[in-house]
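Morning!

As promised:
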Amino acid sequence: MARSVLIAEDEPYILESLMFLMSRAGYRVRAERDGAKAVAAAVHSQPDLMILDIMMPTLNGFEALKQLRATPGLEALRILVLSAKGQEADRRRMMALGADSFVTKPFSNKDLLATVESLIAEPRAKPANAASDTS
Amino acid sequence: MPDYTTGKRIRDRRLAQEMTQAELAKRAGISAAYLNLIEHDKRQIGGSLLGKIADLLRTDLADLTGSVRQRLASDVLEIARALGTPDVDGIRAAQFADRHPEWARIFIRLHRAYRDADETAIALSDRLSQDPTVRELSHTVLSRVTAIRSFAEILQQHGDIGHSDRERFTTIITDQSDELAESAREMITLLGGSLGEARPTSPAEEVDDFFIHHGNHFPSLEDAAGELRARFERQPGTLGSQIAERLAALSETANRHEPAPPSHMPETTVRFAQARRLVVADLPDALKSVIDDDRLTTNAARERALRAVASYAAAALLFPYERFLETAEQARYDIDRIGAIFAGSFEQVAHRLVTLRRPGAEGVPFAFLRSDAAGNLSKPLSISGLRMPRYGGSCPLWAVHAAFAVADRPIVQLAVMPEGERYLFIARNVKKRMAAYGEPPVTFSVMLACDVAYSDRIVYGDGFTAARTSLETPVGHNCRSCRRVDCGQRAYAPVMLAGADAQGTVAG
């Protein structure tokens, strides 16, 4: 069965390009345009990986990430954070909160796909609450 | 484009017009059998016959020889590399440009819009503070840039997508570009208009684009300057004395636009300035017809372009194409030696070398860049794979900057880009004017760059041909886009960089 990816991104065109890329790469794709709905969708649909934008309405990426990592049953969910901010501080903060990888905008499609593939290829080894920043 | 020859192009254009071989051969005044040989590359074609066939096929020479497509292909390849897709090779770029030239042009235009927007966003990022409005706007700009880049890459990398998707993605890119321009204008207004009026390009950039579009080579000016020179050579005396005599004979009115150079300038500068005055006076139509180009949208740009093409024609007059190329090859591109033979300065000779792009009689392809001591860059001319920066600074490790510290001789650098491409950089500082005591000297540094593959053809490559990594200097394009995070010369953090170093993965 195809692996599934949940995309949480509020910008419609970025969302459309991500959906195109992920579908083309053979993933089952589901998308949400706000943080709160994305957390609910993750609980409900149990995707293999989530692409999470930091700046979203209702619940920003930091808050969404905290909630996701505190939710029992989502320990195996790999989370790739997409952000407009390239700063090291944001990156460290997201990693400390349990993100598995981080890609800055504007991203290269190839790099993004390669990151998704490498994350999905391996099971998420650490429990969510023990994620640490090793970058 | 070794797999798509002039013969094949003639055949394709003929078939597209549903013309038989016999019909085209008859109208061209050759036998059908001969045309058949040409179309199958068994006979070379050139000269007036090629021109005639181009007319009969209602196309132009450049289309049949492929130089237009080569230019498109090299731009596509350059962009693909800039986007970090090293697996797109020259052959695939050539196929794309040949089969879909209109898409290739759109792709190049979109990339230019994207790059300009990207540069604007980088310039503005310095001004970003905690102001929520500014943050919101910058987020919007970055989102637009992200969408444009992603869809541009999809168009480029997914050749099999359907027509309707292709149309939709192109429309998205166009719309997002418009909205990006609008966001950029809002941001400039918000920041007090300190970046000047929001306009797509400055006159200098338009002129740069104009020269880049022409590959810095103008056959009509080469011809006109050649005829002018031939006229002088039929008379007794040196070229310099002929030019001086002709200038003296011209009325004041004829050369009021080109004031005589002050006498304290170096001799090479005086001679070049005289040649410029002469071409402005004697070749006005040739100069004007070259700059009759819709890429030049303002009077300021046209005036700037006119000055630049006058310099081009002056160089073509003083350094005639064939003789200059032959000398350059014999002297292995030793700029000082060529300068001694043709009585030209380092900058004049270096600049002329870049123009040796005549199809079939090309010199080593060089990029060109000039910098002042503060790092302000001018006259950028790129080569395939190496884009000379147009905005802001370049990498501080480039030889063009180090050359200020070395007096009166060129320095050579084997520069390695982050992606692994290797180039020879040849730079030297040049004085534009002999300063009187107390007068600040006007100095620039001039740099030529070529692919290291040409190192055995040029004198500056001696010693660099072997793969000796100890001689390599790791460089980038500029700090903003450079992936070398541990560089000691880093002036700015890499921003808006989507690449291996801008992302991280927690070890599992």
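Chain B has a mean pLDDT of 81.

Hope this helps with the figure draft.
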